[in-house]
């Protein structure tokens, strides 16, 4: 179980380091931890495969931020039937020695922008698929992050052009669906492109969803799911250099056959995490309201709005989920969308001793940081002011992480073994 850390709650759950609001802060961290446990990749895969007869020979291919945990779950359930494979994940998210001891190769791609490791991962993946015995069944374990972690570029794109495209997308404000459609058009393996390398072999696909609606064509940019509407990407408002690359990528795949996708099973998504968080909140004693709204707007505006909802609500725990966006300034500071959202909320609840808000990524990272997000309260800005930091200025510079670190409000979990987008927990005390 990952430890959730702020300067206001000791890593030891029996030791409180700051009495002001410590119980409530610890409660929110407990609720968040319960949500992570419910959607953990290892136990989800193990429980599912335990109910399925293992084939004589299975080759495992796991891709995404939860790849290491999902691979361990498959080994727990199928053991000797798994006779090799490849695990691709984010740096720091794999125990490469443990995987190697169980016959699995591993490679670290790059995230959130593809790098040399992502291209090496693509080469290794295609090489593995090209050399498999005909009778082997392929077990694919796919989770969020695959879009960046493994890549075989289309249209002669080099790494520099690919990275430029992904950096632009991450700062564009486009929602995840539109971003992934552009990524698909620039790839030989996304949008079902990987199906061409299966050679008719039997395959099984298990997924953990990090996309709204749990659409398997969007999870990991649909490595094994064709996207019949991919051509719609040509209608997006893209810079000329990116629009040209998209046109070339679409033209390259125009003449390829479209094999059918293998059977797919989604093991968990955002709703599973929200339900688990709600149950944990009720066990603590809170009245719980699960908001069905999907959070996908601008992070600062969303944080401001949610703080207003919380301030006008009845006492209790409020749960939201989704994935917001941030339009980055030319020289952004430290942070990610959850830290940005949390700081915007902190500006709205300043001086209130009855309001707290937690915003964090279930994968344990928020933007290009090792922090999962933040837990703010009515005194966040006052604590940061002691260090000479101004909330409005940090928000304008997309430098929420600097302020939240000074306030002692950052949450760090380390790799969580899952990825079902972001959770926002709001608490109003009675």
Describe what you observe in this structure.
The chain is an alpha/beta fold. The chain has two domains: 22-39 and 271-428, glycerate kinase, domain 1; 41-268, Rossmann fold (3-Layer(aba) Sandwich). The chain is 37% helix and 17% strand. The chain has 15 helices and twelve strands. The strands form two sheets. Strands 3-2-1-4-5-6 form a six-stranded parallel beta sheet, with helices on both faces. Helix 12 (337-349) packs across helix 15. The longest helix has 17 residues, at 22-38. Mean pLDDT is 91; it is low at 1-5 and 7-20.
What is this entry, summarized?
Strand 5, helix 9 (240-253) and strand 6 (264-268) form a beta-alpha-beta unit.
What's the SSE blueprint?
Layout: H1 22-38, H2 41-50, E1 58-63, H3 67-78, E2 82-89, H4 96-101, E3 105-108, H5 116-130, E4 137-142, H6 146-149, H7 159-170, H8 176-185, E5 203-208, H9 240-253, E6 264-268, H10 270-284, E7 288-295, H11 299-311, E8 316-322, H12 337-349, E9 355-361, E10 373-377, H13 380-385, H14 391-396, H15 400-407, E11 410-411, E12 422-428
Parallel strand pairs: 1-2, 1-4, 2-3, 4-5, 5-6, 7-8
Antiparallel strand pairs: 8-12, 9-10, 9-12, 10-11
